[in-house]
Specification:
By secondary structure, the protein is α+β, with helices and mostly antiparallel strands. The protein has helices spanning 2-6, 11-14, 20-36, 48-52, 121-142, 148-160, 204-214, 221-238, 264-275, and strands at residues 57-58, 64-65, 75-80, 83-88, 92-94, 97-100, 106-110, 113-116, 170-177, 180-187, 192-194, 197-200, 245-252, 255-263. The protein folds into two domains: 2-65, no CATH class; 75-275, Glutamine Phosphoribosylpyrophosphate, subunit 1, domain 1, CATH 3.60.20.10.
């Protein structure tokens, strides 16, 4: 209830009107159910997107300020003969405000599976952590690692349950299992798409331009890693909402490996010197 008070809500504002009793009962049921099933979120009755409009901020002149949740990023992943390469930037933004330059947008689900973040950072991190727990439980129950296909289906099912509740998620799930390497794209509508090449985020159109010109199946490991880094770097150079550090990961049958972190400014200086 402390969060409700901080946001300016009270029991009177939440549960007044002709549906007062029904809404209060739904609220109490959902709150209590969260303590039993941790995969259920503790949320206000109705649609949280609509509830957020009740929180009104005002400027110095007393005029209401509309709450905007614009965000940007650039992430990519692709399959090739040597496994899977994932590359991401590290800038977290809220509109034109840069909140962080060192956001880690790749989450280690287990030793053979990685998830990328695009959209709302809190949403992506939370659901990746829930997925990590479910994958570990599957491993303990069945004495074998969960497949990437099954993990992606669990994630899409969990997110679909909250479709229309204001989640902002555009993630990739990549990993290696007994069936080989797999790459899936999952978004906040619960859609789940397998593929070989994906780029997600505000800078994805620039990253795709580099990937389309340099991608081929028979890349060497070094070529694939450089291609992923170069695509993210060019996206950060053109997209104001992307930047910071370029992180590159490589997934093979032996698990994922962190290849490098390199600042965009350092990459720019190196590319400029090489051009000369």
């Amino acid at each position: 209830m402390a969060m409700l008070s901080l946001c300016g809500f009270s029991d009177d504002t939440l549960f007044k009107g002709k549906c007062q009793v029904e809404e209060k009962e739904a609220y109490e049921t959902f709150r209590n159910d969260n303590t039993v099933n941790q995969m259920n979120l503790y949320t206000l009755p109705g649609n949280p997107v609509e509830n957020m409009r009740m929180i009104t901020a005002r400027d110095t002149m007393g005029r209401p300020i509309e709450l905007n949740f614009h965000h940007g990023t650039t992430t990519l992943g692709f399959l090739y003969q040597g496994g899977i390469v994932l590359a991401v930037d590290s800038r977290a933004t809220g509109g034109q405000y840069i909140g962080s330059q060192c956001m880690k947008k790749i989450v280690e689900i287990n030793d053979f599976m990685l998830g990328t973040l695009a959209g709302g950072a809190a949403d992506c991190v939370y659901w990746d952590r829930v997925l990590s727990k479910q994958c570990r439980l599957h491993e303990l129950r069945n004495k074998e690692r969960i497949s990437v296909t099954a993990a992606s289906k669990i994630m899409s099912n969990m997110i679909y349950y909250y479709k229309g509740y204001g989640l902002s998620i555009g993630m990739m799930l990549a990993g290696y299992d007994k069936n080989g390497p797999s790459l899936f794209y999952i978004d906040n509508d619960g859609s789940r798409t397998p593929g070989k090449v994906f780029s997600v985020g505000s800078g994805s159109i620039y990253a795709f331009g580099v990937l389309d010109s340099g991608y081929k199946w028979d890349l060497t490991d070094e070529e694939a890693q450089k291609l992923g880094q170069r695509a993210i770097f060019h996206a950060t150079h053109r997209d104001a909402y992307s930047g910071g550090i370029v992180r590159v990961y490589h997934i093979t049958k032996d698990g994922w490996k962190h290849i490098k972190n390199e600042d965009c400014d350092e990459i720019y200086d190196r590319v400029k010197d090489e051009a000369k």
